[in-house]
From TrEMBL:
SUPFAM superfamilies per UniProt: Nqo1 FMN-binding domain-like (SSF142019), Nqo1 middle domain-like (SSF142984), Nqo1C-terminal domain-like (SSF140490)
Domain NADH-ubiquinone oxidoreductase 51kDa subunit iron-sulphur binding: start-end pairs: 249-332
Pfam families per UniProt: Complex1_51K, NADH_4Fe-4S
Similarity-based family: Belongs to the complex I 51 kDa subunit family.
Region (Disordered): 348-405
Basic and acidic residues composition-biased segments: 391-405
Domain NADH-ubiquinone oxidoreductase 51kDa subunit FMN-binding as annotated: residue spans: 13-154
Record carries keyword Iron-sulfur: yes
Protein name per UniProt: NADH-ubiquinone oxidoreductase-F iron-sulfur binding region domain-containing protein
Key words, A-Z: 4Fe-4S, Iron, Iron-sulfur, Metal-binding
Keyword Metal-binding appears in the UniProt entry: yes
Source species taxonomy: Bacteria, Bacillati, Actinomycetota, Actinomycetes, Micromonosporales
Organism expressing this protein natively: Paractinoplanes globisporus
Coiled-coil parts of chain: none
């Protein structure tokens, strides 16, 4: 029997959003329920973080969990409209196969800012997938946007799991991307050791939002990483192995963010570009001590000055580079870092190894990846000739197959 709206909101107590911000799920549900009709609920699977795999995996391999969570959220807020929103072409048929006719399916072109909740509202209103200034926030206007993992965890709660594990993606360290179930109490050290046996000098945490972190004996949770001065974000961690240079990783990340800017906010356009240019010069060995001082000043002034979190991510990344790796940064004032000459791939990299079954953290999984095909809007899609997805199984029995960047 379907729980009542109040029972579903109570069921969501303690769950936090898995799209990046970590907002309490029950609070969002209750806020939208109080908003005037019509109300809309959106399953947000637009995975803008380049190093994350979890949302694509859920939509491809466990869409029934996402759709059940969407159904429950729709009941909780008495929604007039339900939407699944994503950019991953490979997930399209999996979602179409299981989604009821009442659920709209929208696929957009992939972009870092496309999954921001106000970008989604613009798309729902017929506009581009670009963010809007806040307030008001969508949930204050009757639009509930929940990450697909948030909805999957709500469905697992409804099925009797009191504390469903989080999903985390690890990249870097000279290893293919790995996707993990993270149970309560798991430390970042245990997670990185599951990804690679090699020494780890730190991580870029929370996708590109959490900045650098070298303290690994912290719990992989919102509170644990916040206490360490970082953020869980979407649960993506870029491992810094012994051959990785944090300056090179920061330069690549800032270059990516600058290129993904919506080009709507002057502070973001100028500020993010300036941070990227300075760290690129540092990587090339052409920056000066004065440049580092200016980098710190610019990074301190940038947060909160854009319509979305992109400039905040850039500022946190630059600041953490200066504070977490000060000696490394100073050494780059003189040219000669060999690691900086190597290319840096921020995305979940491809592997020729066969996929492994999804298992507990101490039996970590390996995923396969390949470049995405060009995105098309759903109403332009063609029917693929590949076989239909196989029947879903329990998560701990399910092979992470076909997870591609």
């Amino acid at each position: 029997m379907t729980p009542s709206p109040s029972e579903i909101i109570e069921l969501a107590a303690g769950l936090r959003g898995r799209g990046g911000a970590g907002f309490p799920t029950a609070t969002k549900l209750a806020s939208v329920r109080r908003a005037a009709a019509p109300r809309t609920v959106v399953a947000n699977g637009e995975e803008g973080e380049p190093g994350s795999l979890k949302d694509r995996w859920l939509l491809r391999e466990r869409p029934e969990l996402v759709l059940e969570g969407l159904r429950l959220a729709a009941v909780a807020i008495e929604a007039d409209r339900s939407v699944v929103y994503f950019s991953d072409q490979a997930a399209e048929q999996s979602v179409i196969r299981l989604a009821p006719p009442t659920v709209e399916i929208i696929r957009v072109a992939p972009r870092y800012v496309a999954g921001e909740e106000t970008s989604i509202v613009r798309v729902l209103d017929g506009g581009p997938a670009l963010p809007l200034a806040k307030p008001p926030r969508p949930y204050e206007q009757g639009v509930l946007v929940l990450n697909v993992e948030s909805l999957a965890r709500l469905a697992r709660r409804a099925a009797g799991e009191s504390d469903p594990p989080l999903l985390a993606t690890l990249t870097g360290g000279g290893r293919p991307a790995t996707l993990h179930e993270v149970h309560p109490g798991t430390t970042l050290r245990a997670l990185t050791e599951a990804h690679t046996p090699d020494p780890v000098r730190g991580v870029l945490a929370g996708g590109l939002f959490g900045g650098f972190l070298t303290t690994l004996d912290v719990e992989v949770s919102h509170d644990g990483l916040a206490a360490a001065g970082s953020a869980l974000g979407c649960g993506a961690f870029r491992v810094l192995g012994p051959d990785d240079c944090p300056v090179a990783v920061a330069a690549a990340a800032l270059d990516y963010l600058a290129g993904q800017s919506a080009q709507q906010c002057g502070a973001c356009i100028r500020g993010t570009d300036a941070l990227s240019a300075t760290v690129a010069a540092l990587r090339a060995g052409t920056a000066t001590a004065a440049d580092l001082d200016l980098l710190a000043t610019r990074a301190s002034r940038l947060p909160g000055r854009g319509a979305c979190g992109l400039p905040d991510a850039a500022a946190r990344l630059a600041t953490s580079l200066l504070t977490v790796f000060p000696a490394v940064v100073r050494r780059h004032l003189i040219p000669g870092c060999e690691a900086c000459r190597l290319p840096v791939d921020l995305h979940a990299t491809s592997t020729s190894a066969p996929p492994q079954p999804a298992r507990r953290l101490d039996q970590h999984t390996t995923s396969t990846s390949a470049p995405p095909q060009p995105a098309r809007h759903l109403d332009q899609h063609t029917t693929p000739t590949s076989p239909p997805p196989r029947p879903a199984r329990d998560l701990d029995q399910h092979a992470i197959e076909g997870v591609r960047a």
